[in-house]
Amino acid sequence: MLSVGDNIEEIKSALEFLLRDADVVVVTGGLGPTTDDITTTAIAHTFDKQLHTDNAVLLQIKGIFEKYRIQWTDNNTKQAVFPLGAIPIVNHAGTAWGYSLEIGKKLIVVIPGPPKEASAMLRDSIIPLLCQRDETKQQTFRATVVVKVFGISESKIDKLIADSGLHALGVDVGFYPNFYEVLVTVNTYQANEQQAQKIIAQAKKILENQLGEHIFSFSYEALEATVARELMAQQLTISVAESCSGGLIADRLTDVSGSSAYFHNGIVCYSNESKTKLLGVPDEVIKEYGAVSKEVALLMAQGAKKVGGTDIGLATTGIAGPTGGSAEKPVGTVFIALAHDAGSFCQHFSFRWDRRRNKMITSQTALVMLLKRLQNKNLCCITHYFQ
Amino acid sequence: MLSVGDNIEEIKSALEFLLRDADVVVVTGGLGPTTDDITTTAIAHTFDKQLHTDNAVLLQIKGIFEKYRIQWTDNNTKQAVFPLGAIPIVNHAGTAWGYSLEIGKKLIVVIPGPPKEASAMLRDSIIPLLCQRDETKQQTFRATVVVKVFGISESKIDKLIADSGLHALGVDVGFYPNFYEVLVTVNTYQANEQQAQKIIAQAKKILENQLGEHIFSFSYEALEATVARELMAQQLTISVAESCSGGLIADRLTDVSGSSAYFHNGIVCYSNESKTKLLGVPDEVIKEYGAVSKEVALLMAQGAKKVGGTDIGLATTGIAGPTGGSAEKPVGTVFIALAHDAGSFCQHFSFRWDRRRNKMITSQTALVMLLKRLQNKNLCCITHYFQ
User: B309 vs A273: CB contact, 8 Å cut-off?
Assistant: First the structure.
């Protein structure tokens, strides 16, 4: 992946470098209406092509402006200009069309830069186009297993996998660490599908044996989507009470479409007064143990459950930082509590990141605690997390 | 910017391509402990250097593992291995150190990939190192103005700027559109500082004339930080009531350190019951006008203000999608209301994105409304936003 500035000679040199090795180059960005959008001009210059305006495309773009009542400005005409010989590719998510252009035996594909438009066009037009060109594509079968892992580091995972016989299967292993979870992908490419599936089944078994309870998902989907499926399957409802996570758990739970089926309400209780007034945490308890304490976390979770009239209450209280820490309760001290009909429990954590990341790891840990509880799994992986 | 896979020959070819034109190449990533981290091996191979372990660095890394009680695994030793002749660069945010390596008259700088580590090391070590090397650096002065713009598209901004005389100043103009705001940067490089400042002052004036009320900030800082400064300066407090934004406004407001000074509480009231129970919105009003209505939004904002005992109440109600829309109230219908001591007001919006982005644009619009109100500015730019 080569990224260059809005400079015609730089774009030319980049295209020439990439085409030395590649059969296909996908170019993104620089198709907009503004003066710094020069991709099409640069491509015409590189391959000595003339430019022309496609009137059918222009009409379609003008239609979008009318539909959304956006004022037309003439610089938008540029978005319907293509090098001669290019085949336009429709953009359903924005105004600038893409195009493909044959250069001898090689192919240049050009699409807009905004991620939503680029990914939709890749999926709907570019990948099908490339598969069509590649006649051997039908003869290789890929099988994949992905796991999402919580509570151990990338290097620990690598170590556990190194001794496991996974690499002996001849698979490609990839690690995608995020500071609060690690995505591990395993791919195999085989001449027949059955063989690919067989190898991946063995790989999955090895991963389960080696990583055990640290695996919380076998899917690319976001943790909140996994939690949502589990809540809906069990027809359970939830309310949350957030202090240090500041609304992030509610935000994540409501990112899932249809979340009103299980999510009743969230209370972001930053002040002590709001913990008392909105959740019924007695003032004396806050005074005796402090707002950041196991006692208050448990009462917040129970309060959330009661106020929301839900099956589950989930609560966080802690010190996100960078200020507010003390010797006894340093920045990163967080209590997460879960209340349900069978009882309540609370865990104490010592996180060590900046404010935003302490909020993120708090929301992640709370959602993993919830998921494990829903699956009746033990919580060892959480209680030992960086403790 | 050239990005390659974990492949020694690809890394070699990338380094050779970049060094044809560049005096300095900064390499990020691939310094971790796992088997796919091969950057140092590839650099040693490319420039024919031997590898050695730096024991002082190794000791420091082991110290970090002890401090955070993370179990040591031997593959971490790799993070203290350098090509001969490299000068290690300390990493205060992680375990893998970076290094610089002179190759003839050119320089390779290698730093870890995690964004937080890379950006801290760039700021603290790499940029100072490069300034030191560049003796002419002292002789060019850069001046910059940035504006953040809300409520008009990138192409409209470009058009407004094109006719304004801005380009005639000989400045570099950059557009960084995000679907909910556009960052415009203007830079000038001059032989003396005074001249640079004079040109930038003219550029700023032109931007203010052309973009007017659409400008909400002259800073790179996040909108929530700008709002926070304004609230603190005026010693005002706020509570929020969120339906369709699902906690995102509370999350953003609490991302600012010290937010407990102005943020009291947030209520994420997804169910109708919670709107009644927690915010005092009468059941009959919800029945008559619907939960997504101007009437309910206003009562939510007033309820948030009252429950939180704050100067300001901010509320959202709408249909984030993709389900839940109707002919009368399609997906993207959002009401945002603001209640303060002098009165309340509400605006109706028709957004047109997916669920996550409808939540994001709702939070952004609500915060811009709040900021404009705090600055006693008019809200035209908002009321006409995509209407």
Answer: yes
Give the chain B residue whose CA is nearest to the CA of A241.
B267
Give the fold, CATH level 3, of A223-383: Maf protein (3.90.950)
Q: pTM for the whole thing?
A: 0.80
Give the model's pLDDT for residue B166. 94
pLDDT at residue B237 is higher than 60: yes
Mean pLDDT of chain A, nearest integer: 91
What local confidence, expressed as pLDDT, does residue A275 receive?
95
Backbone torsions φ then ψ of B58, nearest 5 degrees: -55, -45
The CATH number that domain B140-217 falls under is 3.30.70.2860
CATH class held by domain B227-383: alpha beta
Please list every residue in chain A whose beta carbon sits closer than 8 Å to the beta carbon of residue B307: 277-278
Task: Assign domain B8-137 to its CATH architecture.
Answer: 3-Layer(aba) Sandwich (3.40)
Q: Residues of CATH 3.90.950.20 domain(s) within chain B?
A: 227-383
* Contacts with B10 from chain A: Cβ below 8 Å: none
Nearest to A298 by CA among A268, A338, A356, A326: A338
Structural contact between residues A286 and A272, judged by C-beta atoms closer than 8 angstroms: yes
Read off φ and ψ for residue A173, nearest 5 degrees. Answer: -110, 130
H or E stretch at A74: none
The answer to whether residue B156 neighbours chain A at the CB level (below 8 Å) is yes
Q: Is B384 on the interface with A (CB under 8 A)?
A: no
**ipTM associated with this complex:** 0.79
What's residue A139's pLDDT? 64
B95-107 per-position pLDDT tens digit: 889 999 999 999 9
Q: What is the location of CATH 3.90.950.20 in chain A?
A: 223-383
Q: What is the pLDDT of residues A189-214, one digit of tens each?
A: 888 889 999 999 999 999 999 999 89
Q: What's the gap between Cα A166 and its chain centre?
A: 26
State the DSSP string of A204-228.
HHHHHHHHGGGEEESSSS-HHHHHH
Q: In the structure encoding, which two tokens stand for residue B300, read together? A: 């939510």
Where are the domain boundaries for CATH 3.30.70.2860 in chain A?
A: 140-217
Domain boundaries for CATH 3.40.980.10 within chain A: 8-137
pLDDT, tens digit, for every residue of A338-386?
Answer: 999 989 999 999 998 889 999 999 999 999 999 999 998 776 656 544 4
Cα–Cα separations (whole angstroms), residue B71 to A156, A256, B56, B63, B80 = 8, 36, 20, 11, 17
Asked if A358 reaches chain B (Cβ–Cβ under 8 Å), the answer is: no
Rg (CA), chain A: 27
Find residues 71-130 of chain B whose CB sits inside 8 Å of chain A: 71, 73, 75-76, 114, 116
Using CA coordinates, name the residue in chain A closest to B68.
A386
A375 touches chain B (CB under 8 A): no
Q: Is A219 on the interface with B (CB under 8 A)?
A: no
- Extract the runs of DSSP E, i.e. beta strands, from A305-387: 312-318, 333-340, 343-350
B250 touches chain A (CB under 8 A): yes
